[in-house]
Structures are given as C-alpha cells and as structure tokens.
Amino acid sequence: MAVQEISHIGKIVDIAPDFITVEIVAESACATCHASGLCGTLDASRRAISVPATLGDWQIGQEVQVLLKRSMGFKAVWLAYAIPLVVLLAVLLGLNHAGMGELASGLIAIGAVGVYYLVLWLFRDKLRNEYSFYIKEK
Fold first, then answer.
1. pTM of the shown model
2. What is residue 25's three-state secondary structure?
3. pLDDT digits (tens, 9 = 90+) for 81-106
4. Are 26 and 42 within 8 A, CB to CB?
5. C-alpha distances in Å from residue 110, one per residue of 79, 96, 98, 118
6. CA 49 to CA 24: how far, in whole Å?
7. How many helices (H) does the chain have, and how many strands (E)?
8. Pick from 66, 58, 62, 88: nearest CA to 8
9. How far apart, in whole angstroms, are the C-alpha atoms of residue 47 and residue 134?
10. φ and ψ at residue 71, rounded to 5 degrees
C-alpha cells in the first residue's frame, strides 16, 4: 500500500490562537549519509511552517509530525519545476523555429519563465489555502 502522506518530524516553536508554528529540519540526501561528517557536504536547513491550530494539548518544544497529502506534494513539483520547464522549452524552441536568433530566443524564454513565476506569486494566497499542513503527535 502506498503512503498517502508526506511526513516530517518537527518541533513546536510558537502557538497562536489560529496557527501553530512548527520548525522542521529539511535534510538533503547527504545529511543522512554515514560519511557526511568526513566529506563536509552536510546540507540541512530549518524551515518554519504555520499549521492551522487543531484541537489538542500542544506545547512549545513538543515534537510532532507535520503531514501533507502526497497528492499536494506532486502538485507542488508540477507547479514549481515541470510546468516552468515546459514553458521554457516551448518558448525557446518555438522562437528558434520561427527564425529568431539564439540569444534573443533564450532571453525571451527566460523572461517567459519569470512571468510564469510572477503569476504563481500573484496567486500565492489561493495556493496557500490549497496546501494545508496538519500535525499529529509523534
């Protein structure tokens, strides 16, 4: 059976009436390697995630699981990586095929990806509402 949720362990750092802020450590594959201390490529960053407050006896410092539906994770990958790649390639190849120079085609293609990310940024509040994290006790 496939896992239906993406889960990270985190620690509660703030509790407000509407939101609970949980700090998670996002680790790269190198961070979990047994030889990471020898090669010095340790890559881990701390991220704070605001989770809608749910019923429960939550306390600052408590370790919890932060969960997100796996389908939302796949949607995020599409929005952040796959669609911009398609936009970049479509504009680049389309302009090259139309006879435009390589430099101009490349710059316009990069600009088109920039416009795509601007549109995503403009709709950030709508997207934020779609990606709802929730927590449960560890």
1. 0.61
2. strand
3. 999 999 999 999 999 999 999 999 99
4. no
5. 16, 14, 17, 12
6. 8
7. 5, 5
8. 66
9. 15
10. -60, -35
Domain span at residue 80?
5-137
* Alpha carbon distance 119, 84 (integer Å): 12
Kindly state the tokens that stand for 10.
């985190």
Nearest to 65 by CA among 125, 109, 5, 15: 5
Domain count, the chain: 1
* Of 104 and 7, the one with more pLDDT: 104
The whole-angstrom separation of Cα 15 and Cα 66 is 15
From the list 30, 26, 98, the residue with the least C-alpha distance to 90 is 98
Contacts 24+ apart (CB under 8 A), 70-77: 70/2, 70/3, 70/4, 70/5, 70/6, 72/6, 72/130, 72/131, 73/6, 75/130, 76/131
DSSP annotation of 29: G
